[in-house]
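Hey,
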Amino acid sequence: MTRRLTSKQIRRMIEAPNLFLMLDCDGTLAPLARHYEKAVFPKRTRSILGRIQSLPDSNIAIISGRELAGIRKFAGMRGLIYAGNHGLEIKAGAEKWIHPGAKRALRLMKQLAFVLRGLLEYFPKAGLEDKRFGLSLHYRLLSRDRAEMLLFAVRSAVQPFVKAHRVSIQKGKKVLELRPYVNWNKGSAVRWLLKKYYRGKEVLPVFIGDDETDEKAFRAVARGISIRVGRSAETCADFFVGSHREVQNLLRRILSGREARSRG
């Protein structure tokens, strides 16, 4: 059973010789907005993350469903590791990696974007986020009945591609994610990053997220700490906090403790 995050686990994060914080963005670092384009990244959170990242034994990655360029612009911080499109594209410093299967699916994603834009003419309150290597269909502003109609229409339109194992669909919080059918997700990105930066090293990996798309990332840090934002009976996260504000408070405590630790 998932438990509320304890002081003992916070001490683990403060005292870890190497701390690797991996966080989702919307709903975790930033509050969810009624329309994704109107979301705001809190300045205080940005400041805390920057100070944690500046410590010699701490590292931060933001792993988001947003497009890589979009999440970097939204967060607005240099020096962090960014993984966009649920880990299909990753940037750390000057190095950028894109999953080969995502590259091959570019033409298909453009085709599906065209189809979905046609459907959305009948649902003006819904929005399509074209992320090149994936598509996010946002329907937060629709009534329940209209949302069900839209989801049925979309699933019917893309079903041939799903059956042909060319596209995968995953439902999130008032969003439907369409991605290339590749064996890759946020959990895969977590394992890739741990292998690249901490292979053979002692590290405490921590993942914090709020959505169904974060569940595989929770599993990927089984030897570390997994934290769900919002209580859920169906999560595999070990712990939970109540909101993105509690995430900010947690980050502040980590910063204060690790700064004091670095001063000796």
